[in-house]
Amino acid sequence: MKVAVISDVHANLEAFGAVLSDIEKQVVDGIISLGDNVGYGPDPEAAVSLLRERGIPSVQGNHDRAVGSPTRHLNWFNPIAKTSLMKTIEMIRPETRAFLRDLPPFLVRHGARFVHGYPPNSSSTYLFQVKEVNLIRTLAMMEETMETPICFVGHTHELSRVCLDDGDVLYEPISDPLIQLDDHRAYIINAGSVGQPRDGNNKAKYLIWETEEHSIRVRYIAYDIERVVQKINDAGLPRIHGERLR
After folding, report:
1. Continuous H helices in the chain
2. What is the pLDDT of residue 74?
3. C-alpha span between 172 and 158 (Å, rounded)
4. What percent of the chain has pLDDT over 70?
5. CATH of 29-185+193-243, one of 1.10.3210.10, 3.40.390.30, 3.30.465.60, 3.60.21.10
6. What is the end-to-end Cα distance of the chain in Å, rounded?
7. Does the model's pTM come out above 0.85?
8. CB 186 within 8 A of CB 142
9. Pick from 1, 73, 9: which is nearest to 44 by CA?
10. Is residue 175's pLDDT more than 90?
11. ∠ CA 129-106-65 to the nearest 5 degrees?
């Protein structure tokens, strides 16, 4: 089975459309989103509509949660991100806000767990914030049962993998386009970002997980960045959101 894993679209319709076009060429069996479908970008309504039209299951990201329930969650964000989210709320329909509010905190599919931030169900914890002792505990528990030996996460907008190596944490950025996984290890895989990458490569990124081959391929997709930058500026969103895309 081939599963496309996308994350952090962030209302970047051009990047999302380019990624979906590439996914169609890969002939996958399904697509799963790790959340943060909105925020930062200029097309939140269109991006969520496309997600729903394609029937792509998604977990709830912290931006999705804030737009869906701003009274409870908006104050978690820094002032620039908060400004962006308040603008996003104005740009989407009530039905779309309700959809984002009701997204699940995690999914378990094909023997893997999918969560925006950190297992088992956090949308706000960054992988790089987790202390080594807690990473060891989480991965050891995953290895003990092997019920969901892979957990896909987003949130950091970077590509990386974490596993145990003789009891120590092995935390590596993903730089190769093909990663072979060990059948006897548990992994936390950070899937990067479709719409707001922050890993030094401005292409949209997503993963293809091949369950039988126990491998992950990274796809790097070019799109019209300058068009998105102009749309961000025209929408009155913070200009830094566009500058980060270049």
Report:
1. 13-26, 44-53, 62-68, 70-73, 79-91, 94-101, 132-145, 225-234, 240-243
2. 94
3. 11
4. 100
5. 3.60.21.10
6. 34
7. yes
8. yes
9. 9
10. no
11. 75
Residue 160's identity, in one-letter code, is S
Q: Which residues is 237 bridged to in the sheet?
A: none
- Cross-sheet strand order for the sheet of 159-165: 106-109, 112-115, 150-153, 187-191, 159-165, 168-173
Burial tier of 2 (Cβ tally within 10 Å: 0-12, 13-18, 19+): middle
| Token duo for residue 191 | 């899937």
Mean pLDDT, to the nearest integer, of 155-159?
Answer: 97
**Dist CA 214 CA 218 (whole Å):** 14
Both structure tokens of 128: 């790089």
State which amino acid sits at residue 151.
Answer: C
Residue 152, classified by CB atoms within 10 Å of its CB into exposed (0-12), middle (13-18) or buried (19+), is buried
In this structure, what token pair is assigned to residue 188?
């936390």
Q: The tokens of 180 are what?
A: 């072979």
Where do the structural domains in the chain lie, given as residue ranges?
29-185+193-243
